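Researcher: Please predict.
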Amino acid sequence: MLVKLGNIFFHYRNYFFPLLYAALFIPSSPLFADLSWGLISGAVLIVFGMLVRSITVGLVYIVRGGINRQIHAENLVTEGVYQICRNPMYLGNISLLIGFGLFSNSLLYMTVFLPLMLFIYLGIIKAEENFLIGKFGDKFIAFKNSTNSILPNFGKIKQAFTNHHFRFQKVIANEHNGIFMYFAGMLLLLKYHKTLNWDMSIVIFGILLVLFLIAKWMKRTKRLNYW
């Protein structure tokens, strides 16, 4: 049942998650009496999530974005950050989810929408693993039995980086959209909390937009030679 739901979640994920992220702005009772607790702890987790995603992409990028919005994988990647946990990109995404919930200081988001989003990710992970077992068989089962799904095994960090080179160009090419959206989201939440004036907001957004457009131009003109 969960696998079937996971396939549905995967198919419509580009609709589900933006709508659920919008719930950050629904009026809610505060999670913390002191907003700074939420801003600081949330920012730490958001940056951690971006770093996890960036390191994963920069070391070994796994093509598992789907074809025609269906689960797909070209090969089984078990090296790089995938030695630390089987789903490092989802580890980064979940860190971002929790981070934005804390950053928004929304009790409603953390108690209602965050559990729903985590359930969606659980379904997607189960569906992907069901696909990978069907395609790679015992090879994936061995990988599954030796590597945690989400919880990182920090004892394998050195091993994960051995014989791998970090390619920053790959991060720019694959992550510039997401990074722009994450920082823009933080900026919107700061404005929502009225902790940032308009002048500063415009300056910061302008800088983000210029960097985003440069990254977009570099990718479009094939100046990111990372293969």
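Model: The chain has two domains: 2-165, 167-227.
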